[in-house]
Amino acid sequence: MAQCVQSVQEFLQDSFVPMVAVLCSKEADRVSRKNKLSFPELLRPFCRLLSEGHIRDPNNQLQTVKNLRICVNAVNTNPVSSPAVLSPAQYRQLGEVVSSCQPLEGAAATTFKTGDYNLNLSVTTPWFEAYRESFLQSMPASEHEFLNHYLACLLVVSSTEAVPVEQFLKLSQEQHRIQHSGEYTHPRWFIPNTLKYYVLLHDVSEGDEQRAETVYEDMKQRYGPQGCYLLKINSRAVSAEEDEQIPDPWSQYLHKNNLRYQVSSECTHLCVSEGDSESSCLNSHPLQLEADSSSTSLNEAEMKQVKPDADGVAPVAVGHGSCLTLNDHDRIRQFVQEFTFRGLLPHIEKNIRQLNDQLVSRKGLSRSLFTATKKWFGGGKAPEKSMSEPKSACGLLYPPEAPELQIRKMADLCFLVQHYELAYSCYHTAKKDFLSDQALLYAAGALEMAAVSAFLQGGGARPYPAHYMDTAIQKYRDDCRNMVLAERCALLSAEILKNQGKYSEAATLLIKMTSEDSDLRSALLLEQAAHCFINMRSPMVRKFAFHMILAGHRFSKAGQRKHALRCYSQAMQVYKDRGWSLAEDHINFTIGRQSFTLGQPESAVTAFRQILNDDSRQTATQQAAFLREYLYVHKVKSLPQLPLPCILSAATRVYFGHEPRLAQGEKQAATHVSLDQEYDPELSAMWSRLEEQVVAAANRGVVPIGFQPTQCCLNSQTDNLRQPLAVLEEPIIVEVTFRNPLKVSLALSELSLLWRFSSHLSSSSLREPASEQVTGEVISNEETLLTPVRRSTKSEDPYTVDLVVRGRQDLNIQGPRLNQTKEDKMSVRHGTDRRLDPIITPPMPLMEVFFLHFPSALLCGEIRKAYVEFCNVSAVALCGLRVASTHPHFFTFGSNNPTPSTPTSPASAEHSSAYKTFAATVQPGSVVSEVEVCAQDFSQLSGVIEIPIDGGTLHPGQSVQLPLWLRGPDHEGVHEINFLFYYESTEKGLKVSHRVLRHTVFICASRSLSVQASACRSAAPPHRSSDSMSCDGTLVFVDVENVNTSEGGVREFHIVQVSSSSQRWRLHKYINPDKDKDCKLSSREKAKLCFRATPCTPLPASMDTVEKYTFADLNLGNEQIISSSTPCRDFFFRCCRGLELQQGDKAFVVEDSKQLILEGQLHVALQTIGKEATSLMPKEEAQEMVLLKFKSELPPPVALPPPELSQLIKTNLHYPETFSHGFLQDSLCMVPVTLSLSNCCSAPIEVLIDLRHRSISSESQEFHSLFSWVGQSQYKLLLRPHEVLSLALRACFFRAGVYNLNTARVFAKPAQLSSMSESNQQAASPALIIINST
C-alpha cells in the first residue's frame, strides 16, 4: 500500500473514538451561528487532546490515555440507511470526496528502480485516505457493537436566556425522551445512564458577564462543578477592523463536509424554544451519521448568504470564526479538555467498574472479569430471533441485559480509553460466547476488535491474530451479507499487515474485497493492492501494472477519469516495448480516450497512433472502437499524417502505357502485360530472351550495345537502377498496396495521387492535375509526370467505421539492401530505386493486336485457320513488324508464292477447309501431282518471323487483317505458347528504339492418330547397296492407329491423302491388298498402308546448287490437298528433313448435335531403311501401365498361370485402419469396405469375384478370421480397357481384434477368349484392420 500521513496506530485510534452528542437551545445556536458555525462545528478543531489523561481499571491500576480525540455531533433522530449497504447518496458522496482529491500538477514522482524497470510512481495516495476517512465517519451505528454509540450529551444554553436553568431542564428531558421513549431508533446510546454535561454559552460581545457568572454558580450548585462549564466566546464583533489575522482551523474539517452535503437541500434542526417543549429534529445528510449532521445547518446558512441580494449582487462571504479571538480558541480548547478529563473519562471509568461488578456478581464471584472464564456467564441470557431480521444465524438478537452484550460493551469502553489488554480479554471472551450461540454478526464484530486490540497492545505482548480478521471478513461478507462492515474490517487489517511488512497478504485481502457492487471501492482497493506488490521485498512489477490497469478500469466505470488516466499511465511504464501488444493496445486506447475527454487532445493522438501503427491482434469489435476514437480525435485536423492504412512501399508497382483492352465480340485482344498478372522471374527472363532474339534479327543478327529489355511494369523484383522511359501522352499507372493491420474494414474514397513535374528548361514546380478527382502524391523531385487512372476501395462489413477523416501519407520506396562490400554487410545500406522517376520521351507508335477464330483446343496435328488484326492506335506510323515465339512450328502466316489455279472442291467450300483442296481427276491410290518447290521460298526457318504487310508500314489509325494457320502440337496436354510482336517507329534516332507487345495463349491438345512408318527393299540386284533406298521397288509401310478415346466428341478419322516430300524420293503408288480404298478408323482401331516409293528425276548439273523438294500427293478419296502450298509446305519446312510422309486426315466430330469435320496433317521422317519412325515421342509410345511388382524370395509354384494372365486385374481395398464399436450394446459390427478393380491392359476383361473363399495360408492365420462378408457373395463384371471400378462391400465382425480383409478371390480372363477359363489374380499383401471395443 502507498504511504499514509498517519501511522497505523494513529489511524486505528482515530477510527474508533468516544462519541458525544450535542443539544442546543435556539439562542445558543444563534450565538454559535455568528461565526458561521454550529456548536459541534465550533468544537471540532479542538477535539484532540494535547495532554495525557488517566483512568483506573477494575484492578485499580492506572492507565494512561494519550492523544485522545473525541467526536462531537448534533443529535439527529432521522433514520439512517441500513448498515449492510450504502445508499446511492452515500456512494455519490464518496465519489465526490475522491474526485476532489487529485495529485498536484507537476508534482515530482519518486523514481523506483528494480531489475530493468525504471518507474516514476507517486508515493502517497491522499485520495484513498480521504475516502477511507469519509467512509469510516459515514458508517451508521449498529446493534452488534457500541463503538459508535453516544457516551455523553452536551446540553448547551445561552446566558441570554430568561431562565437558563429551565432551558437546561427542557434539554435534559428532551434527551431522556429521545433515548428512553422508544419513539426513535436513532441515535443510539452507549449506556442507559448517559452523561449529561451542562454548558452555559456566553456571548462576550453582547451578553452580561455578571449574570452569566451568577447563573454558572447556580449550575455548579445543581449539577456539581464536574458536570457544568461556562464557555465564553465571541470576544469581538464581526465588523471589527483589527490588524490581527485570526487563523481559520475549521476550513480543513468543513471542506470535506461540504462535499458530503451538496446532495442534500433540506435541513431541519432540533432546537428547544421557550414556549415549546417539543423540539424538532436536527437534519443530517443521508450519508452522514450523527457525527457530521450538525454541519448541515452551516451549509444551509452559507447557501443563504451567497444568494444575491435585491440589487443582484452577492455579498462577500465572511470566514469561519470571525467573532473569535485567539483567547476564544484557547477557551474552547480548555473547555474540551475539562469536559474530557473531568466529565467523560471519569464517566467511562465508573461504567467500566460497574459493568465488571455486575458481571462478576451474577455468579457470586469476587474476581474481576479479565480473570474469569466463560462458565461465569453461561446462564442468564435468553437469545431470541428478531422477526424483522432474516431467519439466519446472523439475525440473532440479544436483549440489552444479556451478559454477552455487557461483555462487549465493557470491551468497547476499554478500547475507547486505550486499555487494549483488558479490551482484548473481553473481546476474546465475548467472541467465544457469540460463536457458541451461532450469533455470527456479533462474533464477527468481536473477532475484528480483538484483532485490532491485540495489535495495539504493542511491545510484542501478543502476536497479531490475522486469522481473526480473515474470519470476521468472511462472516461479514458471506454469512451476514454486510459489505460495509467487511470493507471496514479489510481496511483495518490491510493497514496492520502493511505495517508488519506482509504486503502479499495485504494485497490478497484487498483483492478479495473487490466486487461488482461498487466500482469506486474496487478501484481504490485494487490500486492499494498494486502498491503492495511494488513495495514487497522482491517487487512484483508486472502484478503492480496489471492491478493498476484493473484499478484504472474500475475508476473509469466509477466516473473518476483523472484517476483512471493516472493509473493507466503508471501501468504503461511496465508494459511499454516489452512485447505485450494486447496490453499496450488496451492501455493506449484508454489513455487516448480519457485524455481526449479531459481536454488533452495531443496526448490522445499520441496514444491512438501507437495503437494503429503496428499489427494488432485485437478482435474486430475492439479494433473498431480503437479506430472510431482515433478518427474522432483527428476529425478537427486538416490533412494529418494518418497511420492507416499502412502503405507497403516496396510493393508499389508502376505500369507504363495503356492497359490492354478486353475482347471485343469475336475479337480476342492480346494479353500483353497487366497489373493483374503476378511477376514471375522465369517468365520475365523468357520474354527478355525472345526480345533479344527479335532485336538481333532486326539488326542483322547483332544485339545493339546498351540494349535493355522492355519493362512495362516495375516492381520490387525488377531492375530499378535505371530511370524508366515513359511516352508522352500515355498514362502511367501507379498501383499502391495498402495493408490494413486491423480487422475492421477501411472505406477509402476520393483517393488522390500528388505529383511534381520538373523540366529541363525551368525549375521544379508543383502542378495540380486538370481533373478535380485526380490529384497526386509527391513521389520524387525528378522528371516525373504521374497521373493515376485507377483506384480501389474495400467493401464495408459490419465493423466499418462511419467517421470520415481526410489525411495524407508519404510514398517513399527504399531500394534493395546492399550486400556486396564489407561495409555493406556490416551496416544496413539500401540501393536506389528509380521506378517512380520516369523520363518522358517523344511520341511513339502504339499497336494493338486482335485474334479472330483463335481456338483453345486442337487435336494433335489439326490444322485450323485463324485471323490476326494489327491496329495502329497512335499518331505515329510503325514499321518492321516481326513476331518471335517459343513455338515457331505452331503457326504460319503463309507465303507469297502462287499456287496452282485448280478449282476448289465443293466439300472444301462447304466445310471452310484450311487447305486448298480440289476434286481428284485420277483413280484413288495413284499419284495425283508432283510439284518441285524451292527451299529458298521458305527461308524464315528461325524463331523470328517477319509479318507480311503491304508496303511494310502501318500508318496511324490503319489496321490490317492477316490469316494465321495453326497446327495442333504433336504432344497431348496443355501447351503455353508465347508470342512477342516487335515494331519500330518510322522516325529514327529516338530514345526508345522499338516497342513490343506480348501475347500468351494456352492450347489443349488431344490425341488423334499415331503413325508409324518403315521402309524395306523389294527384290534388288546384287550390286545395289543394302543400306540405301535406291532400288526401284522400295516399299513404305505405314501403320495408323486411332489413339483418340472419343475426346472432344471425335467419332472417327478418315485418311484422305498421303504425301511425300524429299529431294531424292517420292511416293509412287498405293498398294491395297484388300482393294478397300476407304480408310476409316474408329476408336482404338488400326490400319496398315503399303506404298511403293521411287527415286525422283535427277536434276540437271547446272541446277545442283539449288535446293528443291519434290512434293508427291496420293489421295485415298475424291479430293486432293495441294501439299506444296500453304499451309502444308510451311509446316513441312519446320520439321526434320529426309523422306517425309505427310498424312492428311479428317476427323468427324459431333458438337451440339451437329457433325463437324476437322482437318489435320501428321509428319513422319524416314532416314534409314529398316528403321521405324513414328509421329509420337518415345515417351508416349508406351501406353501400357506397368504395375509395381515385388520380388519374392521363393520361386513361384509351377502350377500357377503365366504372369501375364495373373496380373490382368489390380485390386485395392479402401477401409478405415481402426474402427471402434460397442459390442455390449450391439453384438454385430458393420464396417464399410470399398474394393477397387483396375484393368491393367488395353482389352476388355471379364472379372469374377468370390467372397466366400477364406484363406488358410499361414500368413493369414496369424490374424483373426472370425468375420463375414454381408450381402452379395459373388460378382461377375466386365471391365473396359484401363477402366477402374469400385465395389461397395460390408464386413461383419463379432468381437474386437485384428483382421485381414484380403480374403476375396478374384478371377479374370480376356473377354475375347471365351473358351479360356478364368485365371486367379495375384493376391495383394494382407489388409489389416483393428476393431476396438468401447
From TrEMBL:
SUPFAM superfamilies for this protein: TPR-like (SSF48452)
TPPC8 third Ig-like domain location: 1000-1138
GO CC list: TRAPPIII protein complex
Domain TPPC8 second Ig-like intervals: 860-997
Pfam family, one: TRAPPC-Trs85
TPPC8 C-terminal Ig-like domain segment(s): 1208-1309
Highest taxon of source: Eukaryota
Source organism per UniProt: Oryzias melastigma (Marine medaka)
Domain TPPC8 first Ig-like, first and last residues per copy: 676-784, 796-859
Record protein name field: Trafficking protein particle complex subunit 8
InterPro entries: Ig_TPPC8_1st, Ig_TPPC8_2nd, Ig_TPPC8_3rd, Ig_TPPC8_C, TPR-like_helical_dom_sf, TRAPP_III_complex_Trs85
